[in-house]
Amino acid sequence: MATLELRKVHKSYGSGLADTLKNIELKIDSGEFLILVGPSGCGKSTLMNCIAGLESISGGEILVEGADISGMSPKDRDIAMVFQSYALYPTMSVRDNIAFGLKMRKMAPEAIDEEVARVARLLQIEHLLKRKPGQLSGGQQQRVAMGRALARRPKIYLFDEPLSNLDAKLRVEMRTEIKLMHQRLKTTTVYVTHDQIEAMTLGDKVAVMKEGIIQQFGTPQQIYNDPANLFVASFIGSPPMNFIPVKLEPAGNQLFAPLCSGEKAELSCALPLAAMAEGVEGREVILGVRPEQIQTTAGTPGLVPIAAEVEIIEPTGPDTLVFVTLNQTKVCCRMSPDDAPRVGQVIELQLDPEKIMLFDANSGERLRPLSATTAQSASNVTRLRSL
User: Fold this and answer.
1) Are 124 and 266 contained in the same domain?
2) Which single residue of 87, 286, 301, 335 has CA 20 to 30 Å from 383?
3) Domain holding 231: CATH number?
4) ABC transporter domain location, by residue (predicted)?
5) DSSP tag of 205
6) Which pTM value belongs to this model?
7) Which domain holds residue 247?
8) How confident is the model over 265-310, as pLDDT tens digits?
9) Which residues are CB-contacts of 318 (< 8 A; sequence separation ≥ 6)?
10) Residue 320, SS3?
11) What whole-number distance in Å separates Cα of residue 124 and Cα of residue 177?
């Protein structure tokens, strides 16, 4: 096990070209599981290759256990990598694929046999050791690729989108296997994916990337419950957060965010105190609320429901997604299948006042609550009303 730290790492492919990585700062403790997540082209695989030594960095430092490995060759970094394409030797048996790296390190034959047996037991592939990769399923090939990395017992494991070539059911099964494996081995791991479900379920820490920049770094729950900006809020969560454009209007010592559903209704709600910040009056902002945080049954004290017509329903099994329109924007509500309405039915909605977030409409940055001192002198009640 080993700590991993990146200090101001950047990567450029030449003058005149935009940096692929821009001042990456990350630190994970020994034994932690780090997820690098983001859309295609965000730089996550490039960052993975830089950690492995497959690509050189243009500046900054990569430290393992406090030692700078930036200038070392890949073979000297004591890092094992599992590729998206498996990268197995087609003419070798499963056993020889797993043992290949150990032979290159001139390990004794008896020790190699013992290590191959250990890894095969761990991954439950003892019955496959004599087969060639072409005789294996995608999931079996991925297990062999993982076995080859496990046999080295490195300081750090790197996984580059290892499940993207598998079907949905097998992906879920392998995700569970990887998590169980990490819990048993406790080896520091960096895992690249574009799948935010993998990011939320696998990682101890998550780094959300966009255009070579880390937008937010934290635990899965921190990123889900407290996104730093509009991009993070939209990328993490399935179904994604609802974003409703509103224009805050002053009225006395309060602010109003008009909502139009096509029905005459009114909703009272305590918005985040960021709405009371200086200069926010008359400003267009984005109101964010997750589907599960929209209540679809009236009755919460102090809140008046807003009526909206159901336009689409999408049963998913454990939940039913219900879509309505607010401010000419499709809004998704997550409901129990037993309470699901019909298309065309008018339902009453209430927003959870503790979960509403506000974002700047231009920059996408989160509007944060006022400090405690300022908050004491500000009104913490804002009314949302329909037109």
Assistant:
1) no
2) 335
3) 3.40.50.300
4) 4-236
5) E
6) 0.85
7) 242-386
8) 555 455 655 556 666 677 788 999 999 988 876 666 656 678 889 9
9) 337
10) strand
11) 10
